[in-house]
Amino acid sequence: MKKTRIAALLLAGLLALSGCGGGDNTGTASDTATETTSRITDTATEKPSENTATEEKTTEKKDTMLPQATIPELSIEAKPVPDTEAFRYLREMKIGISLGNTFDAFKDTGLTNEMDTETTWVSVKTSQSMIRDLHKAGFETIRIPVSWHNHIVDDDYTISEQWAKRVNQVVDWAIEDGMHVILNIHHDNHPEANGFYPDRAHMEQSKKYIRRIWEQLSERYKDYDDKLIFESMNEPRLVGHQYEWWFPAGNEDVKQSTECINELNQLFVDTVRASGGNNAERYLMCPGYDASPDGALHSAFVLPDDTPELREKHRIMVSVHAYTPYSFALDLNGTSYFSAAKKSSTQEIDSFMDKLYQKYVVKQIPVVIGEFGAVDKDRNLQERVDYAAYYIASAKARGIVALWWDNNAFTGNGESLGLYYRMGGYFIFEDIVDALMKYAE
């Protein structure tokens, strides 16, 4: 994995122009505001758990322009985690990575070939060797975000077969390599999509869209084993609303949207379960409002009811995105400082994870953080290594699985969250990967 990376850093800048450049949402990770999801970050009203960073081990750097970095030695007390089938399954998932800005990319006008959307934001097609590299590095789970709205061929929301086959090919590569795969509906919530929008005025259309997409995906994948996970929606929210990324107490618009999300999640579960095959018992993921921790923790959010046979097996997972603390992790104008030894850096992570643990894990309900990460801020590698180590160690201590959002972006003014350099076929930020793996074990 150690290769000369100087040229790669220069080429990565070119890739970032398409993965993070101007126009549409290409300047972002999942969505220009997506990961602003943890604008959501908590104010840490709870007392943080007692965690300490002790001695650090220096990792030798060779053939690189990157600064020296050390992986902190952490001592985080593990909380009691249910010893159930669902939590054993989470342990198998271990740690994950998202194939960001790829099949989720969209450009609703100007493309003559729908298949070109795969490379509109990252400039390189996904290959089987890429999937193998991600797995070899230790990522046991891959999330494949997919936007479907710009691959629909009729008014009945029929998915283009050539697009469905291409997504299927990458799913197969990951499954064949032994990975867990999360497949979802991604950027179909924005105004141009004509997909779903979680408010009462759009519920008829939204229900038709969710039902039809999941009917088709359920049929296609019903014979796949339980390494394939379905996720209902990505960050469902009131796009364009003043509270698109915030859940203020007492706001009726957001509360009503959450009720709509509850109904759409229930429709998703019912549709998948009714399709038969292995879908009858497949693990499913459902988010709250904008997939934020606040959205999942709010009393208005209710997990869908599963079939009687599965209610006690807890095959429905809570889906959360948390780029926390936001000022460090995602805010381009925020701080570049983070230390695993400073509670001022770590307390927001402790706070939101403790709340998720108490509301869900203690009740034997699995939680998956489908997106997290920290943008590069003028090569603040040590701080990002500290962050990666602390975040994963904290999640594991609470029985939570987390997936890094990799958008193949390394330079520029966008959200540079890339770890794996797709054109070169190797990891640029190896120390971050090493830190993730050290504490995911």
* Share in helix: 25-40%
The termini sit apart by: 20 Å
Q: What structural category arises from helix and sheet content?
A: alpha/beta
Parts with pLDDT < 50 across at least 5 consecutive residues: 1-63
List the secondary-structure elements in sequence, H or E.
HEEHEHEHEHEHEHEHHEHEEEH
What is the mean predicted local confidence, pLDDT? 87
Structural account:
Helix 7 (293-297) links the parallel strand 7 (284-287) and strand 8. The two termini are 20 Å apart. The protein has an eight-stranded parallel β-barrel, surrounded by four helices. Strands 1-2 form a two-stranded antiparallel sheet. The protein has helices at 6-19, 85-93, 128-136, 161-176, 203-221, 252-274, 293-297, 326-329, 343-359, 381-397, 430-440, and strands spanning 51-59, 69-76, 96-99, 141-144, 180-184, 228-231, 284-287, 316-321, 367-372, 401-406, 420-421, 426-427. It is globular. The protein has 441 residues and is an alpha/beta fold. Helix 9 packs parallel to helix 10 and helix 10 (381-397) packs parallel to helix 11 (430-440).
Give a concise summary.
The chain has 441 residues and is an alpha/beta fold. Helices cover 33% and strands 14% of the residues. α3 links the parallel β3 (96-99) and β4 (141-144).
